Amino acid sequence: YKEELKALELVVSHNVPEHIIEKCKKVNEGDCLCGLAIKERRIMFIPQGAYPEHSEEEDFPHNHYLIPVYDNEGVYALFNLYTKKETIEPQEEGFAIAVATAVRNGIKRILLKDNLRLSLETFHLSVDNFPLPVVIFTEGSKIVHINQRFKEKIGDDFKTVESIMKSILPEEEAEKLMFVLYPDQWKGLEGVEIFDRKRDKRQINLYIGPVGRVEGQKYYMLVLEDITEEEILKRQLIQSQKMEAVARLSGGVAHDFNNILGAVMGHTELALTRIEKDHPAHVHLKAILNAAQRASLLTGQLLAFSKRQMTNPRPLDVNTIIGSLLRFIERILGEDIQLSFQKKEPLPPVMADPVQIEQILLNLLVNARDAMPDGGSVEVSTDAQGDHVIISVSDTGPGIPEEIQERIFEPFFTTKPEGKGTGLGLSTVKSIVEELNGRIEFSTAPQKGTTFRVFIPVCETPQKMETEVEKKEPIQPERIPLKGNVVVVEDDTDVRDVLRDYLEFLGIKTKVVEEPERAFEAIDKDTEILITDLVMPGLNGLSIAEEAKKKWPSLKVLFITGFVADNELLNEVEKRKLHVLTKPFTLKQLTDTIRTLLL
Predict the structure, then answer these.
(1) Distance (Å, whole) CA 449 – CA 394
(2) Is residue 468 part of a domain?
(3) Which of 325, 270, 330 lies closest to 475 in space, CA to CA?
(4) Considering only Cβ atoms within 10 Å of each terminal Cβ, which end of the chain, N or C, has fewer?
């Protein structure tokens, strides 16, 4: 019986005339006597002549005995017995029913196997198209199916699950996993390190669980989920969040420290102007000033790392910047370090602040020096490749151990003894390079040294580049009297006091304001210059300047700042190319800037 056709199809016959076989090849449910027995689901005995329309008596006189093979699940077949007897014996009917029952059970077993085979084929097809590596195995560890993804990632030359475990896991881990191969419910092991087909390390989540029982045999499934890339992205996200947090902390520390350094340097310089060079205190004041200037380099690194440093990008010749810096850097490196410079000329210009290039090179050179405590060689070289200028720094040190290579750009990570390093050198370099839209790479080999290569984009449009480096300013300023009226707005008491003292020392009439909101009370028509901190609680310096210039358009403005946490404010200042002094500044820098504004 074909359920989908609702019809009987002839399968086997014996001693039946050919013309009847032809007629009974297919009988729809409800048609003819056989179809009627199927429709009514009952055993029927049809005496000869009872249904003349279906009779073949003229050449084949007979009675019909129709036995449908069925149960609650459906119809399977039909027996049609032709007999010349006009009645049937009870034992014959019982025998026919027994035969029908046996046939039904046999058909059901065949159908069950067919359905099972079809289910397995469908299951295997689904598993093969599953995007994760999958293995099906028995309770005895025998593998019955490996999907395509598993073959691609791990391989297919396995007979048992144990052989898979021993292949992809270290021996100790493989032994541990043997105890969880046959769980009663699904279990997962997260963050397992394995070796793939290429013997590369991968990080996976491993899942094992039962999938069912067939003919008494229990089956299990092993699924591998590769999370290597996901873990890399997760670590990168954590690292970027950590870098951002440290950057904010560094910037805040640098801001406060710059205010302190500004006061120390300012008062020291004022003291130096009031005593003769042969005074016993002169040498000590110079030492204080030099120490403060060295400290300002550290805060400069903090600001560069936090990407909150005020910069003045312009077209630069990298060779010129490096050549100027190397002339005095040899003293820092020491006599046991041989320094050489191999430059490619000419180089296309890059858009950067000279201080940024100097900080990159200085940090890489100091890093190279510290890697060679017993001395060695350092080579600085430049090159051009495509749309990038390349600065390379190579040393002959011991190389960077593999286990720390992933951490060298982390802020405050250092292998130096406590008190010997800040751990900010390479992280500062990386921050500056990223700010310049460049990249940094390194190569290293044990006992052969390390090379850092910095790629900086060239200027997008041809521009005249700066080939002269500004000369270093003298430490002690000269007193050149100035005339003018200045209003100082500064919320830090120490910085405010030193500014007032020095401006008055120069002969400039000065008003100082602590609270930004009261700046407009101090500014009047006689005010020539407004000196204001850029970042203050309440009103920022830019807002004060904009409001003041609406009323006094000729007012000149000088901004001073140690740290700008607001990127929008920082970008606005740089875009407008305003007059800005970065704390801690020298008193000579302040004098020269005021003189420029008063001209």
Answers:
(1) 7
(2) no
(3) 270
(4) C
